[in-house]
Amino acid sequence: MDLAVLEIFRAVAEAQSVTRAAAALNRVQSNVTTRIRQLEDELGVELFLRDGKRMKLSERGQEFLLYAEQILALTEQAKQSMHPDSPSGPLRLGTMESTAASRLPQKLARFHREHPEVELTVTTGPTGRMLDAVMERRVDCALVAQPSSLKDGRWEAEPFPPEIESLPVFTEELVLVLPEGHPVVNGPDDVSLTTLGGFAFSCSYRQIAEQWFNSGKGQPFRALKVQELGSYHGILACVTAGSCFGIVPRSVLELIGGTTNLTLHPIMQIETQLVWRAGYNTPAFKSLQGLLLAT
Hints:
Blueprint: H1 3-15, H2 18-25, H3 29-43, E1 48-51, E2 54-57, H4 59-81, E3 89-95, H5 97-102, H6 105-114, E4 118-124, H7 127-135, E5 141-145, E6 148-151, E7 154-157, E8 164-179, E9 195-198, H8 204-214, E10 225-228, H9 232-240, E11 246-249, H10 250-256, E12 262-277, H11 283-293
Parallel strand pairs: 3-4, 3-5, 9-10
Antiparallel strand pairs: 1-2, 5-12, 6-7, 8-11, 8-12
């Protein structure tokens, strides 16, 4: 077992295909197939379930991937630490869709100009998914919403898992968006709609919207339905059509524009946190951290 075969294994696991993994690694397919077979023989287990050309991780393969990710990440961190004044090498950033759209374009363009030797890749997804990716070493760091709970009418920040370090970098104002002409909203009971347009359950903003709506005292109890949508444009289109309400960062509304057909109601301010695994510290990451904090 060596680092090269671990990289091959990870590539096949991500692509679920020898063909696509070979293309990504610039290797011939036969070499990738042979190295995977040799790795399975060495470990004495099947790492993949083969279904035609599709390669899906077995239960043992999923377990081994966690170790492979850890080994490869620590190896890269060790290499970069030898050149503390010269940021270089891969840096994998996870981020929420809203942050990627409204906060990152100019900052990442500047980062690329100042550190062209860093191979920065960006992955988007909801907060829960990005936290999992950091803990499983599928990304090196991520921009996520601070988990929050509504207690006795007040929003309280919840801690991250103990293996996660964090640093606040942005402050977002979350705004309730309703169809044009909706009556003034002073609290959850004033919302006439009972369908929320939002992202997947692991989205912190969706969870905040659900908590806020369910904190109402109206009788009889109104069950909240959720229409899952894949983008803020989709959410705003459904709200404009009158089929649901939503919760959106004001920075995204300002970016998209066209809020004249909506009724807005501020809900809360929430921190966007940069999170990373405890102990992770490379020159590239430190440079990104400093740029995100710069005004």
